[in-house]
Amino acid sequence: MQNEPDPDWPRFVRTEEAARLLDLSPRTLEKHRCGGTGPVYRKLGGRVVYTIADLRAWIEGSARQSTSEMAKIARKPDRTLAEARRAGR
């Protein structure tokens, strides 16, 4: 009798398969990982692995309705325009 995988146990994939599932190059996925902008990952025995659930969550978390949404998040000025004008006087 063959061992059946436990349905409650997460399925792990390595970087190459995760990149293929996300339609990215493995190097791009590595850059996301190093920059902290990629999906959650784990290290098992020195190998980087991802769960399918974490890949799906990362995809869902990147959903946008407008190209300006990320610009609003990324651009957080230290001071307002009015403060900058006052400082220039």
UniProtKB/TrEMBL annotation:
<protein>
    <recommendedName>
        <fullName>Helix-turn-helix domain-containing protein</fullName>
    </recommendedName>
</protein>
<dbReference type="Pfam" id="PF12728">
    <property type="entry name" value="HTH_17"/>
</dbReference>
<dbReference type="InterPro" id="IPR041657">
    <property type="entry name" value="HTH_17"/>
</dbReference>
<dbReference type="InterPro" id="IPR009061">
    <property type="entry name" value="DNA-bd_dom_put_sf"/>
</dbReference>
<feature type="domain" description="Helix-turn-helix">
    <location>
        <begin position="14"/>
        <end position="61"/>
    </location>
</feature>
<feature type="compositionally biased region" description="Basic and acidic residues">
    <location>
        <begin position="75"/>
        <end position="89"/>
    </location>
</feature>
<feature type="region of interest" description="Disordered">
    <location>
        <begin position="66"/>
        <end position="89"/>
    </location>
</feature>
